[in-house]
Predict the 3D structure of the following.
Amino acid sequence: MIIRNFTKTNYHPKYTINLDNFVSDWISFDIDQQNKLLLKWDKQNETFSVWNFERQKLWELKESICYAKFDPRNEWIWLVRRENEELVSIFVYDYTGKQLASTQMEDVIYDSSFIITLLPEKTSVAIDFCGGQDGSQEYFLSVKANKIEIQREIESNACFLFAFDNNTKALLLNFYEDTIFIVSYPDLKTLKTFTFPEDFSYGGISKITDKCWIVSNEYSARHFLFNPETMEFGEEIIIEGYEPEENEDGEILSDIASMEYHDGTLIFSYFKITKTGEEQWWGQTTINL
C-alpha cells in the first residue's frame, strides 16, 4: 500500500496546535481537542496546570503529580500523585478544578510509571503500573458515588489497548511476551492470541476499522496492515519517496518512525539523523479502507 499524496507539518497533526516552547517534554502533558484544553505537569517542581489553546492558564495545583489524563466524556481529569515508592493517590477532578473523587493504591511493581486508557464504560478507565523490566500490573477503575473503585485486576503484564466490534471485544497486549490477545468484553475471556515473530519488535497497534489495523515494528520503523480475524499481516504501508532501504547488514529499515490512524486520517512521523543534525516532520493523509 503506497501513500502518494500527503501533507507535511512541523508538529503532530492530531494536536492541531504547535506545542514547541509550551511543553517542557513530550511526555508530561495531555490534550483535549474537543474542548481545546491542554494539561501539563512537572513532578520535580510540584506543579500541575490546565490551559486553553490561547495559552492562558485556567487553574493549577501545587502537587507532585506524576501522571494525568483528560476524560472528555465527563469533562474529568484523572491524576496520579506518588506518596512513596509503594503507594500512590488517584484523583478525579472536573474541568473547573473541583476534586470529585480519590483513592489510594498500592504500587506492587514499585516506583512505576503510569498509563491511563479510557474504557468503553463512561466512568471507567484502565490504569497500568509500568515497571520496565520489572513488568506491569493493570487495574480497571470506576467512579461510583464520588468514590474510585477497583473493578478488576488484570493478569500480570497484560494491558488494555482498545475495544472494538461495538465494544463486545477488546485487544490486550503482553508487551514482555510480544503477544496480543483478542478477548470478549467486558468479561475478558480469551478468544484469539497472536505472538509476533522473533524478528519483530512491537511498536504499536492502531485501529482503522474493526477488521483492519496498523501494526508497527519499532526496530525497523516499518508498518503493516493486520487482519484481526485471521491474525495475519497484510500489505506494508509505504510513504512514496521515503521507502524502506537495506543497510550494510542486510536489514531493511525505514525512517517513518511512527504511524497511527485517527478520525479518518493516517498520521505518521519522519525522523532521521543527518550529518547536520536531526530531521523530523509529520505527515497526514486521508485514507478509506
User: Anything to note?
Assistant: The mean pLDDT is 93.
